Amino acid sequence: MSGDPYAALGLARTASEAEIKAAYRKIAKADHPDLNPDPAAAERFKAAARAYDLLKDPEQRRRFDAGEIDMQGQERPQRRSYREQAEAAGHPYARGYGFESDPDLSDVFADLFGRRGGPQGGGHDFHMRGQDYRFGLEVDFLTAARGGKTRISLPEGGDLEVAIPRGVRDGQTIRLRGKGGAGMGQGGAGDAYLTVSVAPHPDFRREGDDILVVLPIGLDEAVLGGKVAVPTIDGPVNMTIPKGASSGRRLRLRGRGINGGDQQVELRIVMPPKVDDELAAFFEEWRGRHGYDPRARPKAGG
Amino acid sequence: MVRYYSETEVITLIEDLSPPRLKAYLSARIVHPVTTPQGLGYRDADLARLQLLCDLSEAYDLPEDALQMVMSLVDQLNTARGDLRALMRAVSSEPDEVRRRIQACLRDERG
Asked: Check: CATH 1.10.287.110 for A5-84?
């Protein structure tokens, strides 16, 4: 092929931008390899496409005219040939071309080529169930725990209200019957499958149907006990802290979990922000008379 | 394994494809990418199809409904050509006698 893009488009060097575009379009119409099976036409189209890529950009064209660049380096990224792919067996856009419904030849045709059914398979009495859609759906912790509604956007526009069942788990799939792609002919619509991922919550964790919460309590509350408001998935609930509770102790709020599960409350003693003189003095005195070893274990037998 | 390209990759790979143009092809249902958890997934077949669609749009300024009609014909022709190629390959490996009978039959019908 010549290295002259003007020749490839059949133009003089003085051609205007409009003339360049018109020349390329003319060649594309006549010689596009998907429209014209002649190999010579494909070569003409390839040359014209490369030339057009160079000349349609005024700066590139100026540099070429000034001799700063040549056609080298103008190689298009490999053009994808549709025809080559589309002739292949199992092509997703394969389409019937009339024999399926031919009264004399449909059987012979089916014997030779079998049933063809890409999503776009044509033909008058062609029935196919619609495509199943698959989506990922992120749900916040509380919506997953309590159930609720959310909306998702569909690939072809529009959105859809989705009911989140109470207690849905991370990784679980929700099936929406008939919410997939439309069917063809008498084929019904496909289904939509939503794979749920549950976002973590700063306070709550889930263990089976139980909800786990870590509840900070003050030194005084640990010593004296008392009533404390505890967050649950359905709002705060008052809970009695027993006298002398240690960190790590688990208390149970029955029925406050998911679907009849419990909420487990793990206590964590939090010191006051500052140990003042009064508190220090009190413990100095207290330790003298009531010291204990928090690391003592029950003696092993024998 | 099927390789899926994202919308961003597709727009980068096909020079003449702009986001609004892709959107128009999608809403006219001329391309059918696959829905994946990561969004729409485009196969090699979709890429080649989009390249051809861009070429046709550039050369003919076709509105979407005309483009859809053209693509339907292109698909029918390509499928028929693929079938015919397979049929000819099958015939070519038959013994002489069978090929002669097929030839005679075709001459009768098609002159």
From this structure: yes
